[in-house]
């Protein structure tokens, strides 16, 4: 079992993560959401259920997440609980449990369908629509939870099938915290040997368009997105904050509009997808479109980019100053971001890259129906 360990962090707690290199990009057509479904079912395995309850009663934190390319189960503990928490994560990755027994499959399916209905919101919907514009229907599944119809199509045998595939793929453990005086098994070693060839390569194929709902509404959500290949990931992250700042200031200073601009970034092995989303009144749509066109066509201010790089670096240092964040970051750095130096930015090359691109940002506007 590959172990990736950072015991230099002077943090009282210890975070232990168990990773599978599978996510929604591996969902089968018509069964979107099956890896997320499997995450739920694993928590219903009797051994996992029993340990989860025991950990929670002891004050430990146990959780999991599924992304497009990874699945992670993790425990946040202190030294006194380390051995038990570590053994749990190790067993979860190393032992194949029987999913054909009672794992509350039908009840969990109902829970997931209710989650999908409950978690619907306009921000997620506009991101979904932008992704369809960018990648059309030929891309892997970005929709981690799936939809009501696809979840209904998933059977218990489907989950057993993809669960079995986990044990022929890469698995690894990340540990962050003060474990200098804690011994691990002989199977633990500090070198990552994760096969990054398992990840799917994606690229933008859709035509950039400005699309808007036909519904006549008082308020709309305005969304923009761009894709940057992994060689421009770092600059793209900075650029995301730069555009957000430019857009907010232009709207405020030139038109007295104080719309809150939300950004979201999706880190994939192939690169970075960044989103800018804000809620807007109908009468301001034309103004916003003109400003967006102007911002994306004007020359980039290198001093402003450098300022945002420093701000982003500080934010990342603050966020990584706890065991859980650093443990998750460690997992991504050794899979999705492997071989990339987060401190390297070449803005001159990035500007040339932007100037050579033919596409403007993808734009989608959806009405808020009441």
TrEMBL record:
Residues 8-130 form the Peptidase M16 N-terminal domain. It holds the Pfam family Peptidase_M16. SUPFAM superfamilies: LuxS/MPP-like metallohydrolase (SSF63411). Signal peptide: none annotated. One of its GO terms (molecular function) is metal ion binding. PANTHER family: METALLOPROTEASE, MITOCHONDRIAL-PROCESSING PEPTIDASE SUBUNIT ALPHA. Belongs to the peptidase M16 family. This is Peptidase M16 N-terminal domain-containing protein. The lineage of its organism: Bacteria, Bacillati, Bacillota, Clostridia, Lachnospirales.
